[in-house]
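> run fold RimK/LysX family protein
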Amino acid sequence: MTQGAPERIVLGWREWVALPGLGLPWVRAKVDSGARSCALHVDAHWRFTEGGAPWVGFRVAPGTGVPIESIAPVLEEREVTDSGGHRSRRVFLRTTMRLAGMEREIDINLSDRRGMRFPMLLGRTAMAGAFMVDPSRSFLHGRPSGGVVHSLKKPR
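> ok
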């Protein structure tokens, strides 16, 4: 590390991540420095307008098996290319991520990851400047503490 540069937190190739603003106390994430953006599996999502601005509602069933519905303002929509080279237009939102005792704002897209082992993909833009990955290790930081933030609550 360069003198004066902040020490980066080491993550394993998979970690537990909390998304408290979305009502998710923890979700299993694959840490992927090869992926640019973060993706969250949702079972369903729908668009609506509130106060003249675009919003998205969605349903996700985290590891607890109990479906959680949440809403968030739409940050943007853009084309994303998946690891198989397929392009699709996805909704992005901004939310707080809690990982390894740190909270930071991340952009995350809503996706159908039904066939994947991990409901969340943690991409390099969310890790930039704070984390580095040791691919030989996993679940270094345990499950985040804290309860579920009530669903269908507007983010702060």
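Residues 147-156 have pLDDT under 50 and may be disordered.
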